[in-house]
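Table S2 (text version). Query chain:
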Amino acid sequence: MWKKVIFDVVLVAFVGVQLANSLSCYSCKDPASCQNPTLQTCSNVTANETSVWLSTLHNNVPSVEGSLAFFCTNLTYYHASNNSRIIEYLGCVHPNTMACGLNLTNVENREIWSKDCRNCNTDYCNKKNPAGTFSGSAYTMIGSVLALLLAKILS
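Corresponding structure-token output:
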């Protein structure tokens, strides 16, 4: 009896941890700090900070009062001629901000800068090479397999 109770508690803990946590993203504000970005838990405060930062470079950044949904964003501007990064930003953003669709305020920069921009909605997905990281679903699958193996061993 106790084995089944303990098994159920462990299974709920594995599955529930991913659902209970907020979205976490890498965070940095320039190419130098993006070499070693910090971690940031998304909230209205962090997403609003991103909107303020975006408005320093772009026109018509929409104002979002509050949201329960967030994206991680990776916005990089670079010189197309030599691929040197000019501006790089990683952080949390409101989905309605549409960070990747914004136009630069400076018309000259629109012509000489190229943009690479991605939004995503899984933990730590906004770094340049997320292929080596596990997502929440991978942990859930591994936890489920381990729970099934544990149930077979204990029964």
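Notes on Table S2: DSSP finds four helices and five strands in the chain. The beta strands are 24-27, 38-41, 71-79, 85-93, 113-120.
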